[in-house]
From TrEMBL:
It is found in: Nucleus. It comes from Solanum chacoense (Chaco potato). This is Putative ovule protein. It comes from the Eukaryota. GO terms for cellular component: nucleus.
Amino acid sequence: MSLNRTCNSSFWTKEEDKAFENALAVFSGHSDKFLKIAAAVPGKSLQEIIDHYNVLVEDVNDIESGKVPLPKYERMQSSSSCRSRSSGAGVERRKGLPWTAEEHRSFLQGLAKHGKGDWRGISRNFVFSRTPTQVASHAQKYYSRLNDNNAKRRKSIHDVTSVGAANITEPSQGQKSDELTGPCGGQSQWPIADYVTEAFDTGMLSLPGSVTNCMTDAIEGPSAVNPEKFPLVAALGSELNSSFPGVDEFLQSVEDLIIVPAEGTSGVCHGVDTRTSPSLSVQPSVTGGTGMYTHPVSLYWQRAPLE
DNA sequence: AATCTCATTAGGCGGGGATT
DNA sequence: AATCCCCGCCTAATGAGATT
């Protein structure tokens, strides 16, 4: 189990874990978030931060794929990331606490996947920290907000109406918009985007809620993990289910699509299969029992060298 | 038919920003 | 500083559908 691995290699105290979680919440949208988180967590190296983050992502993947029961986070007494899992336990809900942007993005993803009305599904699969009733209540205000044309209203979390909107519409840290849209021009002209959409529709690519949120943030620029490459689009940071028939053909098709840049453009698009790219620190996760094997695959657009 | 489960809706309440 | 008003969360009531 990944949590045990973390505890063996690097013990995290309650204070360190809390500092990590707080820093992750603050800096998740930053291109250099790992550096900033490392700075905010005394005594932890950059690599330890990245490892801790990846273990967290991996665990969420396992939980979302149903391989492990939902952990019962004991808010006041948890001493480290070495949390014990009790069978059949539920997630402690964030009663009375304001919705975070992260939760709202998960809500929007759940809304896109399950549709309006399936609050239980959204709660179970996307916004783990909220009950179906809380999700429904949040949705009520969300739709009310959408239908409210009052120009004098204050800014609200409900103003975020798409998962990646904040990142996509407001490139940060001096990043130019053309760097985000890639060598093929705008997103609408990007054949890979349609191809990946189809992959989602057929179930080949999964959209694992909060994991995708973390990956989405990386669209702002190169990360400490991958300083040379930009994620192609937000959704491409998601897991690829290698047990799905035709996954290798999919990867090959991606390569076929993107190795030929559009005319008059520069830069190279390519897929990175982490089965063969150990440089990516996100490692495959293997669980027994069902025989299902999943591994993360990230697809990146690599900028051409500046001339 | 009775009961149970769940989604929806309306309204109350507290917090906090905006205004005076 | 006081007040107003908006925002966001929660709870209770209600209704619809499923189950016994």
